[in-house]
């Protein structure tokens, strides 16, 4: 297993020249993301503190530390992981654009896992100390964040099921299928193709397999003609077939996700979207992301 990298993220925001005006927000046109209302937008525009550009290989959050900030990924990929004292690493999940980072530290006073930038990442930054205002004054946003924590638990449930009960072939099939579907939801795919930024070593550290075992399992999986993955270029050839190999249920379509983004004329700001509380409770499947 690979050891964790030692770099930590700096506190300096990116230069103003990298800010994007509202109409050019790369996430506004994503079909799976819901609309927001003016009241929530006003609140989050005051909540957001800045933006941060993080280079690939840098730790955004560190296990055992207490960060003063929460983050949403605007662009790029990251991964959550835990390490043992001898440096062995277990990757527990991957974070894509629109995903929220750092909530655990707000609840437990310190992070129980680390987060590393898998690619160069653009982050929206929010002060942890103001999170309570969201819960006390904006119950719809509070519901969304609570759902985010539940979604993370669901992903971890599947990861534990894979490591504990799925075969090596099933583990790999499920991981690649689930990552493709998550990327597809937010517009990172082109038809049945996309670029996976992770390597076979990342996959091995996710599935609890050796690198050699992972490589052999990938060769066997590609022989089924359900997918093709070479030099990070991934192609899903048989969605139904890969779903069966993963030993999982086909994904169900859900309502559009709520999201928190923020862009004003010539500057990034923090804003929010969410349906009414009754609508969220009716569907019980909202999703939130904090973006600026």
Short description:
The protein is of the alpha+beta class and 292 residues long. It is built from nine helices and 13 strands.
Structural account:
- There is one protein chain.
- 35% of the residues lie in helices and 19% in strands.
- It is of the alpha+beta class.
- It folds into two domains: 33-157 and 264-283, Sandwich (Jelly Rolls), CATH 2.60.120; 167-245, Winged helix-like DNA-binding domain superfamily/Winged helix DNA-binding domain (Arc Repressor Mutant, subunit A).
- The strands form four sheets. A four-stranded antiparallel beta sheet has the order 1-8-3-6. A four-stranded antiparallel beta sheet has the order 2-7-4-5. A three-stranded antiparallel beta sheet has the order 9-11-10, with helices on one face.
Helix/strand/pairing category? alpha+beta
Rg measurement, Å: 19 Å
Whole-number total of structural domains: 2
Strand order of the largest sheet: 1-8-3-6
The span between the termini is 35 Å
Major β-sheet annotation: 4 strands, antiparallel
Number of helices: 9
Keywords:
four-stranded antiparallel beta sheet; globular; disordered C terminus; 35% helix; alpha+beta; 2 domains
Task: Outline the fold blueprint.
Elements lengths: L37 H10 L2 E5 L4 E3 L7 E7 L2 E6 L5 E7 L4 E2 L1 H6 L5 E4 L3 E7 L3 H7 L1 H26 L3 H18 L7 E3 L4 H8 L3 H12 L4 E4 L2 E4 L2 H7 L17 E2 L2 E2 L8 H7 L9
Helix pairs in contact: 3-4, 5-7, 5-8, 6-7
């Amino acid at each position: 297993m690979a050891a964790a990298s030692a770099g930590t993220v700096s506190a300096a925001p990116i230069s103003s020249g990298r800010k994007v005006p509202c109409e050019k927000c790369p996430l506004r046109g994503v079909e799976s993301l819901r609309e927001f209302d003016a009241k929530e937008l006003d609140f989050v525009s005051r909540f957001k503190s800045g933006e941060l550009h993080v280079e690939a290989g840098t730790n955004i959050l560190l296990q055992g530390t207490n960060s003063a900030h929460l983050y949403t990924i605007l662009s790029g990929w990251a991964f959550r992981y835990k390490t043992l004292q001898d440096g062995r690493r277990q990757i527990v999940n991957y974070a894509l654009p629109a995903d929220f980072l750092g909530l655990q530290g707000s609840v437990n006073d310190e992070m129980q896992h680390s987060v590393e930038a898998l690619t160069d990442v653009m982050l929206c930054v929010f002060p942890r100390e103001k999170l309570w205002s969201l819960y006390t004054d904006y119950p719809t946003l509070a519901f969304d964040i609570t759902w985010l924590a539940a979604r993370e638990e669901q992903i971890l449930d599947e990861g534990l099921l894979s490591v504990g009960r799925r075969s090596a072939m099933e583990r790999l099939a499920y991981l690649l299928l689930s990552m493709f579907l998550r990327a597809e939801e937010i517009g990172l795919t082109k038809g049945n193709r996309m670029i996976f930024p992770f390597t076979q070593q990342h996959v091995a550290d996710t599935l609890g397999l050796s690198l050699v075992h992972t490589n052999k399992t990938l060769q066997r999986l590609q022989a089924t003609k359900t997918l093709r993955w070479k030099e990070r270029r991934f192609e899903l050839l048989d969605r139904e077939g890969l779903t069966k190999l993963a030993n999982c249920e086909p994904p169900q379509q859900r309502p559009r996700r709520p999201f928190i983004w923020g862009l004003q004329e010539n500057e990034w700001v923090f804003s929010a979207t969410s349906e009414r509380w009754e609508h969220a409770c009716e569907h019980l499947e909202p999703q939130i992301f904090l973006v600026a």
